[in-house]
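Annex B. Sample input.
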Amino acid sequence: MRNFKNVIIAICMIVLLSGCSSSDLMDYTDRKTYEVAKDSESESGTFIENLINGTEQTKESSIEDMRTMTVERVIDGDTVVFQDGSKARLLSINTPEITKGKNEPFGEDAQVFLSQLVEGKEIQIKSDPKAGETDKYGRLLVHAFVGGKSIQYLLIAEGLAKVAYLYNDYEYTDLYKEAEELAKNKSLNIWSISGYADSEENVFNTNVVKESIRDEASTTINHVLDYLNHAKDLMKN
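Annex B, continued. Sample output.
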């Protein structure tokens, strides 16, 4: 009888542990707090160097064609709302969806990261000469910078965005792709789930996440059945 109770306890533990694992995979509730370090003031370096490394102030010549806007709030990892009510979509990237009822893995992480990076702050934006001024939703299509740092580059390098929607030879594409390779090599965030972000399509493959959950559930069920069979053998003895 004691052995049977031990088996039942073991089964309960497996189910509980499995449930936690599946929940974490789906909800990502244990996400870290993203912070971007404040760089020391510097006026040295080219704009491309600033694009990657960031400075508190970029050279005047590098921001002459940019608009300074204050971010009111962040909708998701690639869309912001300014204090004047206008919206902007970050060019050349895509982050997992968290709007319209969707909750794709790492979408909330991207939103948190971008919020901590720009919300309530002034950023510099510029359109791309080979892209339209706005998209079909009326959002400004922009490359964006904060403290001299490329916001797109930071999102991509953190593994929270993929290079996407390249309908022309846009500016900074090579740098964005460089950041993407860094994130891929480290298997950061969206690159930590095999097949989730590495499709040539602009979207994310959520099917691989569902398959991971199904595989995990199947493995757990098999473990439970094994323990039940073992329990029957103990009862016979």
